[in-house]
Design a protein that fits this description.
Keywords: Membrane, Transmembrane, Transmembrane helix. With 363 residues, the chain is mainly α. It contains twelve helices and eleven strands.
Length: 363
């Protein structure tokens, strides 16, 4: 017989904590989309990936609530056979939604890096890392689905000929890899960022903003230390904290991935964070060819740029309709909506007025 939430206080506490962070996840996503609206920038791949991750966190927390009803947080001796079978089935669903939510968050972060740091070699690195993430999610998913064969053997040990792989080895392989990829994802843009020509204070601030993802590393370190819980036969009680941590990991990952894109809202209404313009670092010359190194006065600024000894100031300004600020994009689109980039050049005329009967010198 399913438990009520009142009958399962331990599971209810875990579920309540996750519900609180789910509200924060919705708030972070809302601020992210609001920031896009303030900049008048259409939704991009990284936004859609975050929305997919948000949907998966909702599905995950729904299954978590159902797990509380079927014994999550209760000692296995007090859980009936039918509830135990349902609990194991829900455990598989929680694992699968957690895996794909992590993947969606990584896709969002890497696509954001590609949009921000328009440097050819860095973009290639990001695409290579994206390919690795695709391979990794497929391997995680297949491991989850094929760990026990036939699949039904996961919850029905009476199936003849059923066999399961090494759960502990799979657990360690998955979480060590996730830990390492979390670190790599967080620090990936830092070397590029510190080569930009901006003041140290801003570099530190933006670096810390990108490295917020390292907070998630703590979750994996703790889970790796909880081997005794993974090995415990009391799965309904011991796995409760593991499920809670899995949900919190994807919720916090979603929140932290949205921090850079909620800056316009924070700056406009609270006066904190960075200005509303999306940061953009690019390297190209006047002919469109990519060049390196790149120096920017401020990240994404059009005020002063140096491209291979070509100094571009306000007198020769380039509008990138996909990435520049809303004012520039609006002005440029009114001039020619069919062009991707518009160069506006101001010609300066110097006149030397002389006395009567003398020549005028014009340049």
């Amino acid at each position: 017989m399913p438990f009520s939430f009142a009958e399962n206080p331990q599971g209810t506490i875990y579920f309540s904590i996750c519900c609180f962070f789910q509200v924060l996840s919705f708030a972070a996503t809302g601020l992210r989309l609001w920031g896009r609206k303030l900049q008048r920038i259409p939704l991009q791949v990284n936004d859609y990936a975050i929305l997919a991750a948000l949907a998966l966190t909702v599905a995950n927390i729904g299954v978590l609530g159902a797990s509380v009803r079927h014994g999550m947080g209760v000692n296995i001796a007090k859980v009936g056979p039918e509830d135990l079978v349902t609990f194991v089935k829900l455990q598989t669903v929680i694992t699968v939604t957690w895996e794909w939510a992590i993947f969606a968050i990584r896709i969002s972060i890497l696509d954001l890096y590609i949009k921000i740091f328009r440097i050819p070699w860095f973009i290639k690195v990001c695409y290579a890392y994206l390919a690795f993430q695709v391979a990794f999610i497929l391997s995680m998913f297949l491991t989850t689905m094929l760990l026990c064969r036939p699949f039904r053997y996961q919850w029905d040990k009476t199936v003849p000929g059923g066999v399961c792989g090494d759960l502990i080895a799979s657990y360690y392989a998955t979480h060590i890899t996730i830990l390492l990829t979390d670190v790599i994802t967080a620090v990936l843009p830092i070397p590029v960022l510190w080569k930009l020509n901006m003041n140290t204070r801003k570099k530190i601030g933006i670096s810390l903003m990108f490295m917020l993802g390292t907070v998630i590393v703590t979750f994996n370190i703790i889970r790796l230390a909880w081997t005794d819980k993974v090995k415990s036969p009391d799965i309904t009680y011991a796995y409760a904290i593991l499920f809670c941590f899995s949900e919190l990991e994807i919720q916090l990952g979603l929140i932290l991935a949205s921090v850079p894109l909620m800056q316009p809202v924070l700056h406009k209404y609270l006066g904190v964070g960075f200005p509303g313009k999306s940061p953009t670092a690019r390297s190209h010359n006047k002919s469109g060819a990519s060049t390196n190194p790149i120096q920017l006065g401020t990240i994404g600024s059009t005020r002063t740029r140096k491209y291979n000894n070509i100094l571009e100031t306000e007198s020769a300004r380039e509008f990138d309709l996909d990435e520049e600020d809303e004012g520039d994009a609006e002005s440029a689109s009114r001039i020619s909506p069919n062009l991707g980039k518009i160069s506006v050049t101001l010609d300066w005329e110097i006149r030397h007025e002389t006395g009567p009967g003398q020549e005028k010198m014009t340049r």
